[in-house]
Amino acid sequence: MKTDDQNVNWVKEPRLGPAGRSYLLLFLQGLTTTLRHLFRRKKTVQSPEGRHESPDPLIYRGVHRLNRDDQGRVKCVACFLCATACPAYCIDIVAAESPWPDREKYAQSFTIDELRCIFCGMCEEACPVNAIELTSLYDLSGKSREEMIFDQEKLLSVFDQTNATEPM
Amino acid sequence: MLEPLLKIVVLIAGLMTAAAYLVLVERWIAAWVQDRLGPNRVGIPLTKIRLFGLGQPVADGVKFLFKSELTPGHVDKALYFLAPAAIFIAASAAFAVVPFGGAIPASWFPVSWGITEPIPLIVAPALDVGMIYIVAVGSVAVYGVVLGGWASNNKYSLFGALRSGAQLISYELPLGLGILGVVLATGSLRLDTIVAHQAQSGAWNAWTQPLGFAVFCVAAFAEAARLPFDLPEAEQELVGGYHTEYSGIKLMMYLVAEFLHMILAAFLIVILFLGGWHLWGLTGPGNAAAWPVFLLRIVVLLAKVMGVILFFMLARWSWARFRYDQLMVIGWKVMIPWGMVNLVVVAVWLEYGNNMAAPWNLSGNQCMALIGWMALLVSWLVTVWFDPTSDDNRPLRADSSTARGIPQP
Lengths: 168, 409
Known about the structure:
The complex is a heterodimer.
Chain A: H1 18-22, H2 24-38, E1 64-66, H3 81-85, E2 91-97, E3 105-113, H4 122-126, E4 132-134, E5 149-150, H5 152-162
Antiparallel strand pairs in A: 1-4, 2-3, 3-5
Chain B: H1 2-33, H2 56-66, H3 77-93, E1 103-104, E2 119-120, H4 130-151, H5 155-186, H6 191-201, H7 205-208, H8 210-223, H9 248-273, H10 291-318, H11 324-360, H12 364-386
Antiparallel strand pairs in B: 1-2
């Protein structure tokens, strides 16, 4: 490096105070910190036996669910906002004429590829009718790729499973 | 003939087991300090018995043995194979003169074995230059490091090796100065004599020569390349230092050698400065033949060594690594002067000590400890005042207001 380069902003190391210069006080400080942590209660969750509990399951971004309305029908109105917002293109919706009077369209098929999903929660943000939500289930697994493509039935069953602990 | 061989077998087996289990202890301490649990699953293979993870070293060892061992095409083959062997052999050979307690009395053996003299728990008991031997063999470790980095034919390995070589050579001087003070006070280079001398007077060298103790501890940390002096490896900064290109069993030899260095450093700290097997009231001076004393000495020695090793491991998580220039400044501008002050204090004390102690009605050791602690305090305050570690060693700009008269081109 050229020492006379005017474009280089030359910063001098700030001088330490007496505690820093003597090192001994910082030495003791560091040692007491580690000693305190040595005997502290451990944070580890022993996974297969114990389960991680989310501090707030309502904001956790786990597996999706499709909410039902009070009549047990799927709330989705097939507006495609979630599929548009999805950065991973993992939502696939086939819309059809609604058989019910309260909306024009409904989702004939609604599939989410959980393997492509990045669990960003944008679909939940985008949904105008609170139909799609992310639950606190985090340990999903499957034996095949096809099994991990969740259709409407499966997403509704996730709702049935989590509705008691995580209300809409 | 059989006796030394037996000792060597026991020593090597013990050291390897100790190194393997110290890896586990290291991982436990690392985990506990970070509020984690650490390895606690591996127990007896093929069963569900966990034993708090005590089977982990076996799993680690098997993993290392079965790992693919890759020799890169661009290395210098002969040196590449020689380097880990050199560091490993040097690290284990240094233990030849370390006493692991007292001596087994001859009367404990059946008469038909024909043993007439007590058997000391040292592999090479009659070596009168023990301390020099350890320093000499210990410096071979630099070869392992530098050769490993050079033979790897990789610039990052070479960087690591150069940093490491400079560090190890720099800190051998304060290490030697720390040892010299003790050797001067004891009048012997034999480790068992040094322990016996401390046991005789009841005052450990750490008490009478605190300055030497501080210098030796810092130098031992640096020689063992432990944090805050672990610049050779510096996991987070360098790729892995001098052993970047090593894998499989050769890497394991490097890692085991590191742990052997740490064990050796702990043994030396305990033997030279913390009284070895001596503990007031429990294990007195003299070569007591009673078996409780014999066993207690081993237990006391190993407990002290374990304590020092635990301190080594805690230190790893307590303090940040020094910058490279700080490392050199601490070695050359702080530790070597401190070591020299200590040496002078001890030498002056040995020459004029008895005359000085008499008028104050103090015992020799009390007076020496007083002077030693005063020397430590003064040296420390002088160091704090002049603060060599925060010196900015970079060249200064000509127009800089802080230029210290350095001629600029």
